[in-house]
Amino acid sequence: MPRPHLRRRLAAGALALATTAATLTLAPPAAEAVVLPNNFKSVGYMPSWSGNVNSIQYGKLTHINYAFVLPNGDGSLRPVENPSKLSSLVSLGHANNVKVSIAVGGWNDGDDSAFEALAANSGTRTAFVNNLIAFVNQYNLDGVDMDWEYPTRAPRRTTTRC
Questions:
Q1: Minimal CB count within 10 Å: which of 37, 72, 152, 162?
Q2: Boundaries of each GH18 domain copy (predicted)?
Q3: Domain 37-148 is in which class?
């Protein structure tokens, strides 16, 4: 007959083992990543201003871009809209083996002046890259989708005096 302290240890060990087994059986199986022919990618966009992350058909996608975060001319980033939505998207995407990236820029009513300003200087370009890396790490993202629409040389404005 085991001693009382040995019985308590055995009971505690059995309880821990039963708890671990119950936890393991309750966890949902890992989702399979979608495999497309010729290593094609199926990319979707989730706008920050509409839509529900629970209604995404993750099983049909390889990548999702969260739209958008906007740059400032000094290389910093404007605060992302609906950060809790982005966090939920990352959690659900990763649980379904879908890579999640941040889309930077977008149409922005045709105003690409911040991109133009930051691109014109090596210091602001460096700040921009460092801020993007920090953003990716903060939200556990898989990458960045650069969506600069449309990079052009701005025409010089001249003033005519009469």
A1: 162
A2: 40-162
A3: alpha beta
